[in-house]
Amino acid sequence: MDTIFALASAAGKAGVSIIRVSGPDALTGCAKMGATLGTHDRKLVKLVAADGVLIDQAFAISFAKGRSFTGEQVVELQTHGSPAIVAAVLSRLSQLGMREAEAGEFTRRALDNEKLDLAQVEGLADLIDAETESQRRQAVRVFNGALGDLADGWRKKLLRAAALLEATIDFVDEEVPVDVYPEVNELVDSVSKEVQHEASGVRVRERVRDGFEVALVGPPNSGKSTLLNRLAGREAAITSNIAGTTRDVIEVRMDLDGLALTVLDTAGLRSSDDELEEIGIARGRERAAAADVRIHLLETSDSERVSGSDGLDIFVLSKVDSCADEPSILGISGVTGQGVDELLEQVSLYLGNLIAGAGVATRSRHEKALTAAAGALVDVSRSLGAGDKPVDLLAEDLRVAIRSLDSLIGRIDVENVLGEIFSSFCIGK
After folding, report:
1. Nearest partner of 122 among 428, 427, 420, judged by Cα
2. Are the CB atoms for 157 and 190 separated by under 8 Å?
3. Number of folded domains in the chain?
4. The pLDDT value given to residue 244
């Protein structure tokens, strides 16, 4: 492989910048510019240009092959964080025959050298992008191999079940010495339930990564935009007594108890002769229907209530600060903030409970693999009970399930997803 290099820390002026070099010529190449190191070493060095002029004094660290992030010999140069120093060091490395790394190439080498599995690579990408505490916790679990551990456990059980079935093929014309079907049934049912549970939680885990959507729904002038501004802590939406002020869906990102939320302010629900307003109302209904939580702002406690089929519907009495009505439901005011904390507590509690039992799989790719495996296992369970399928075909169904689970962590069928995964990484990762 080529020896590659890149800035591993953020670009721009900083106290310290880290330049990573990985590959067979990492030690010899860095030695030519003044960083002479052993295979697993650290020291203060003077980095020099081709003409011997000092570039910078740096701290250099080497990681032996098999003990580095990429699994290759790695050198990291910690220089002062001047853009000019970084540019000079990168230029010198290029002059010495090394090349600049492509996006995600260090992580790709870690995968190729079996330092990470495919699910861990995805977890690392999510960890880098994490903005909230819940996103960080979820990404760390995947990066630490939680999904890989599950897949390995399922694989061992299914390989045992397949071996038991295949052993009976040798006794096709004789009496099988031991009835293996009860153990096979137990193994298959156990894995099938766990896989189906994991698949059912993917959508929730995707929402943790991408953010849950909370839609504000209600008639015109019900206080939706005022509430949005209160939640955002700024004037994100125009507020007015004129009905139909909000015509398009306004989105605001926020962090609620470590959860990433996108709050949607939708157009007031009413019949209108204004074509543009009607388009906005239709878009609002569509986004609200797909939201994880809908907050319905009612004008009176006995107003008509309409709920969706999925997610949570919360009904509140809006503008309670200016309403004499005694609410039988939670009253809020976007102007004074009354009831807003209680409202957010309801949202946080619901989403927290949703996350608690959702498992560790986080992507649609995971869901497809888990669903395929679960389907194959359901077929095996049914056929074991009905006795309508030859043993060799049952064993092949088990191997279909195993291959689907193997694709979770990159043992097979990974080339078609690698480009998409690694394109999300920065050059230095």
Report:
1. 420
2. yes
3. 3
4. 47
